[in-house]
Amino acid sequence: MGSTAVGTSDRHRAGGNGLVAGLVAVAIALAGAATAFATAGAPAPPPPPPASAGAPALPAGAGAPALARAVPTRLRIPALGVDAGLLPLALGPDGSLRPPPPERGDSAGWYAAGTSPGERGTAVVAGHVDTPAGPAVFFLLSRLAPGASVTVDRAGGGSAVFTVDRVVNYPKSGVPDEVYAPASRPELRLITCGGSFDRSRGGYQDNTVVYAHLTGG
């Protein structure tokens, strides 16, 4: 898959109003990279529940005021039993986002050149669904339901609390721009691989995307 390189002038920072235009390709490349670590015998991640597949089940709402930029240190999703470290992710020479290494499958990563979770805009967190060792940090991500809470601990103390609006599976060939579109409020996207696993076609065929917005901090 092709990727779009991102220069420093394209970065979204606090007070900005959008992610880089090429981040769609970048994040899809990240999700695709996770498939390289999947094993033929690994269990398939569960599909999203039917209620999560379409329009948001909860009103979007205004949410909480934006927070200042801060490095995220930990991701907690009580409904899934996730309590994981957060690694900074950067772009490789080919312009694609480098995923956490397979030996860190129990950790997620955030796009450190973009919006930090809690800032105004769209923050992106990605993680593996599985690795050669078995299920990884986002193995159950597709089962997250609207209304669930996602907490991101922040360096210096405090946290950003998000409420899930919806969970959607998109074919990797058809991820819409809205996943990474500019946001006027603090929003969060959690991304991993999903759908069926087809080794002959390069691995998992979908991306699972969680949409959430800031409701506390």
Automatic annotation (TrEMBL):
It holds the Pfam family Sortase. The lineage of its organism: Bacteria, Bacillati, Actinomycetota, Actinomycetes, Kitasatosporales. Gene3D superfamilies: Sortase. Residues 40-59, 93-115 are annotated as: Disordered. It comes from Kitasatospora setae (strain ATCC 33774 / DSM 43861 / JCM 3304 / KCC A-0304 / NBRC 14216 / KM-6054) (Streptomyces setae). Keywords: Hydrolase. The keyword ATP-binding does not apply. GO terms for molecular function: hydrolase activity. This is Putative peptidase C60 family protein.
